[in-house]
Design goal:
Blueprint: H1 2-23, E1 39-47, H2 53-69, H3 71-75, E2 79-85, H4 93-97, E3 104-111, E4 114-120, H5 124-127, H6 131-143
Parallel strand pairs: 1-2
Antiparallel strand pairs: 1-3, 3-4
Helix pairs in contact: 2-6
Length: 146
Amino acid sequence: MKRIRTSSASCIAVSFLSALLLFRNLPVTSAAPALAAEKKIVVYYFHGEFRCHTCMEIERLTKKSISVGFIKEMAGSKIALKIINIDKPENTHFVTDYKLETKSVIVSEFNGSKLVRWKNLPKIWDYTNNENLFIKYIQDGVKGYL
């Protein structure tokens, strides 16, 4: 009988140690509510399949505006730039979502995956021949969302 007790005690000790090893690396959770979804700004440049010189210039200047003006925000994933061809079937919903009529730069604010607000920057067409004005226009539009 003594031998059985020793075996039972050993099994319990081994089980307890195994459980400790198993559960020590699990994340600690609490009953506190999850953190609010993170705010993120997405700058889109929407273009079609056919791309003229001006369309290519708008893309170049938009990339430059964001990459130069928002280095920290891009590194921290607070701002993203997405170049989207709206002629591709999977992207046609953007035409309705953002009421697109032509190639456009749109600034969108998201809370997690939920679109909160957005703004079209239509003067891109007026500033394509003036790099400094174009960059300032885009950066000012984005700063209004930060």
